């Protein structure tokens, strides 16, 4: 790399300072860098201390610096290509110019630059579909997965290499009805492919918080059922980390000793996480997760035997290609606004957004199959479905099936208990839902029983406590149940996909766009994307 590879003056100054410190064998951390710039009267020209610190944040510890370095170099070459192309066009349009000779010389000039583009085996943006498909095949060799599950896991694995471009990160909730269904094996495979993985079954509460804060690892947590059901302090710490760590800026507050005193310190918790275990996760955690429900492989579906010593080299190649491609689309992902399926809830859309941005950046059939996969997985799951939302959906079904406009509390409770696929028959420790418990469940929605006039079969009027259909209309319009209410409309079939093109709202940058930058908005992006901006 050279100073001229950088587009902005601030980045050229920072690079020169780093080169100077390195050449004198001095530390190149952000404190030393800012001090050197200040001593050289260059700190203000470099954007100020806060800007320089933001550039350096996480650059050395969390990423292979050669990846953003290659990106800077490649963008520099693209700018040179664009500049020379413009010069050729201008020369060819001049009066009296021999256009054929100008273009011939211009092509020769451009060919001098092409060998410098994509050096050291750099992966290009257009390689996305092939890299994701290779990744998908690799994962499915060792774990029995549906096509939709494999699609989402591949995109999530790519997301771990670029999660700093996102404002939210979805969790992967790996569960199964029985043991030996491949949960641990899936985490072991992801351990070979994700960025900075931390595969663990149990650790201390203090270590959990501090390691996440210090390293922003990809947390691969096994045996989550034991973790949540074990020591209370650890379970509550884990719950707090998971509740806050799905959004950028999330933090956990802990009391720590400083000298003779204890003080409260905030520890950042934002990082990708995959959680595997039997049974259900706490509702607040499940609500932030993409469900991957595994089944035991049937006869003829036995995956390939997993031996890390035999596949380590191959896995490293897959991971490195994925990391390089992810680095090449940082600028596309930063600020991407992908189309989100309307059938997903707001929380589900939050989780889907960064993965759909990656699918759009890849292109091919990934935008289409990624959206179908999300709709399929979320509509087929109920682990993130709250009891209240499920209750509203079941009540709506009862009113529609009976065509009634009002029902007594007892009638409605009995009808709910009769739904075999819902939990109301097991309510109250197996006694079933009754009018009192029904009233308590509906109270948060500001729906309560009141006197209604009904007529018995023998024609007599009576006035029991009950509900009218109109009581629920507002709640039905506000709280959707994608798993139960039939709102999870699938996307068009593959036959129709040919006429539908999904693309990121930002679009891929052209060479001309790369060369345009508003000096007034010369602020940094996050992490490596900022320093790597050529």
Your description of this structure?
With 534 residues, this protein is α/β, with parallel strands linked by helices. The chain is built from 23 helices and twelve strands. The strands form four sheets. Strands 2-3-6-1-7 form a five-stranded parallel beta sheet. A hairpin with a 5-residue loop joins strand 10 and strand 11. The longest helix is centred in the first third of the chain and has 28 residues. It is elongated, with a radius of gyration of 29 Å.
Briefly say what this structure is.
This protein is an alpha/beta fold. The chain has helices spanning about 10-25, 30-40, 50-55, 65-95, 100-115, 130-140, 145-160, 185-195, 205-215, 225-230, 230-245, 285, 310-330, 330-335, 345-360, 365-380, 385-400, 410-415, 425-430, 435-440, 475-480, 510-515, 525-530; strands at about 170-175, 195-200, 220, 250-260, 260-270, 275, 290-295, 405-410, 450, 455, 460, 465-470. The strands form four sheets. It has a five-stranded parallel β-sheet with strand order 2-3-6-1-7. It has a three-stranded antiparallel β-sheet with strand order 8-12-9. The protein has a two-stranded antiparallel ribbon with strand order 4-5.
